Write the C-alpha cells for this entry.
Amino acid sequence: MADYENRGAEKLFELYYESLSKIAFSYLKNICDAQDIACEVFLKYIEARPKFASPEHEKAWLIRVTINKCKNFLRHSKIVRNAPESQPFSSDPSPEILDLVLSLPEKYRAVIHMFYYEDMSVREISRVLGISESAVKKRLERARKMLEPFLSD
C-alpha cells in the first residue's frame, strides 16, 4: 500500500464540513449545535494530528469523531430546547422525508443518513459505527419498514 499524505485541516474543512454538519444534525436535530460539533471535530483534528492510511480512513475518522461528539453532547446536555427544530441545508431533497428520518430512533437514523445522504456502503458504515455488516443491513431493513407506511402512496 502506498503512503497516503494527509491533507491539511483547511482542505478537510472544505471537503467535509457540510457532510459532518449533516451527520451531526441527524443526531442533534438542531442546526446550530450540529455546526458547532462539526467545528469541534476539525479542532480535534488540528490538536490530534492523526495519520491516515487512505482518504477512506480519513473520512471514517472524521465521521466517527462527529458521532462520538454528538453522543457526548446528548449525554451531557441538560438544556431543554423548546424552540422549533431548525431545518438544515436547502440542498436536502424533501423536508417531509427528512422529518420522517429524524423521527427514527438514533441507531436507525444514523445508518439511513450515512447510506442515503452520504452514499456510504454497508461496509463503510460498519467500520465507522463499529458494528457488523449484517447489523447495518438489519438496521437499514428495520428503518425502511418504519418509514414504509409514510412513503407509500
Summary: DSSP finds seven helices and no strands in the chain. The chain has two domains: 1-87, 92-153. Residues 92-153 form a domain with the Arc Repressor Mutant, subunit A fold (CATH 1.10.10.10).
